[in-house]
Amino acid sequence: MAFSFLPSLLLSLVVFFLLHTTTNGAKKSYVVYMGAHSHLPDVSLQDLDRVTNSHLDMLASFVGSTVKAKDAIIYSYTRHINGFAAMLDEKEAAEIAKDPNVISVFPNLPRKLHTTRSWEFLGLTKNGKIPVSSAWKAGRFGEDVVIGTLDTGAWPESKSFQDTGYGPIPAKWRGICQPGYKDGVRCNRKLIGVRYFNKGYAAAFGAPLNESLNSARDVEGHGTHTLSTAGGNFVPHTSIFNIGNGTASGGSPRARVAAYKVCWPETLFAGGCYDADIMAAVDAAISDGVDVLSMSIGGTGGYEFFTDGISIGSFHAVKNNIAVVCSAGNDGPTLQTVTNVSPWIFTVGASTTDRNFANYVSLGNKKQITGISVSASGVPGGKFYPLISAANANIANTSTTLALLCYPETLDPKKVKGKVVLCLRGENGRIEKGTECLRAGAVGMILANNVTDGNDLVADPHVLPASHINYTDGQIIFAYLNRTKNPTASITDVKTLLGVKPAPFMAAFSSRGPNTIEPTILKPDITAPGVSILAAFTEAVSPTGLDTDKRIFPYSILSGTSMSCPHVAGIVGLLKTRYPHWSPSAIKSAIMTTAKTRDNTRKPILDSSTVEATPLAYGSGHVRPNSAMDPGLVYDATAEDYLNFLCARGYNDTLIRLFSQKPYSCPDTFSIEDFNYPSIAVPNIQARKVTLTRTVTNVGSPGTYKVRVRQPFAVFVTIKPSVLRFKKTGEKKTFQVVFTPDYSKIGTK
User: Fold this and answer.
1) What is the DSSP string of 209-225?
2) What's the predicted TM-score (pTM) here?
3) Which of 92, 227, 485, 711 is most buried per CB count within 10 Å?
């Protein structure tokens, strides 16, 4: 998962001119940008104090005294950015701008975040308004549905969880607001419950946990982000990077939400989300009265259902009419990497939206290349700077291979200072590479993909001006370096591009099928927006998570199937509100059978490598919430159907009790291929003729449905009957699907 955020505290980097105001002597906040510091990484507190004092001295020379300067100063940027923020009048700001040590002075203007683009891309809004056809209106914005997440907890003070305008907590809610150790966590009529579960983590840790870990407060950001994506309020908020005005919102913005903290910090001894804790949390959530559970947690995709805590817990949730939505995993594009593959789990892959945070790399030969970033600015002054490959900037006794990857302590400041550095993606973190460039004195970084990553780009909150470019463009820059005596480059500010085409396309990181446990169940089930997703964040840590990064902001941009999962959970919440008596499988069917497999150019959805994607990447397709509100027909399944599925898998009565909580006799005959799933996957289709059945339930008006088939290559598909007529709502009809190999074409493609 990639963190991406452009902090307003770094507005001091976005300056090359002075913006004048029309006030007459009124004090306003300004940022004074003076470039970068020449600190070593192990700068002392005394050195930092000296920087602050120098800022005060400079400010005092313009405002009249040290006392006035101390009253005026807001921030002193002492570590990497050299400058300060202060309350000034227009005349003082203009005079400071003339100082030769000052690059620029500009008003500390509020920036506005554009609305979280994923919801407009999915059709819930249009041009900032909610159309009549929006699933938000059909689903009453998920009013009073309860969405719970199993994650890293929540930041309860977020505006996404404020309860202004909410009525009493639904009477069905039986959860608690579990107090933690000096954590100050408070619930309200929006965030109606929090709990933490760490005994499994403590057991793996092997020693008593620090008391601060006895808390549901989110100190990592992941849980706050997913919870607000699923069910956060409509929240107008100021810009953290230049992406316009707008509103952040969850998929079910009027839902009630609950956080179950089951994921814990990584240490040398333990870390992550343990099955024991997950199962305890699901057990509590069922009792508490949640309607939807969202788990952006990697399951044990290589293990049978009965040895998987997520699978077991999810089955019991679904049995109690709670829909469970899980992420597919971030191990793509390798095949057979998808996790959370149980048929009762709604498994979500990740794809893009039509929004990019783009900047441009200009080369000295006038070549311009488009990249992705949420850096605070371009390079100082928008100028061209010397360009160097990190492989040629290695410090003594360091290999060029490690230097090219920009590992920590591999770059020589004597070779790097004042230059733009070209680093290769891979092995270590993307932001870590930029941190190393900054340490060595670089003015900017170009991050080029390796051949494996291809066109997969991520908008990251880099600590210096940076641009992430694809493999092909990276090769262009490497070639330019090799044939140019004095290569130069410049990196622009970040701009938001809307209406990007093609979109969606599958994220390279999104895990792919087939299902390694049961290949007849296609996984993932669906894909949804999971790249550069804007949502609430913790204020306990910076958006990069680096110890040296002191930026704190209430919203962040993250990428991963962790982000696509709560999108679908929010849509499930809308359907749950509209159809409160539908089963989780009926809701899943409505979303799957109304998905699309074409992008905004009306062509098949692509992989990040620009080849046509397959159902092993996107399942049934890209989610369309408005269409899901009226699916016409659904493929329903009961708890008994799932038990029959397990019987067909070879589970005996003893094993099935792990799922059913009561004795159960397997039917004498039940084909696993007849399990009533909304998608069909037939392994080894070219080796045999296969006949299977499906049953649909009419959830719409009376009507007639005629089959239309796009046949796979080298396979004949026949549907019997080819027409289904429904006279009433709730009526069920069964049909057969016959797959016959076309042996004349097998092996010709």
Assistant:
1) PPGGGS--B-SSSHHHH
2) 0.82
3) 227
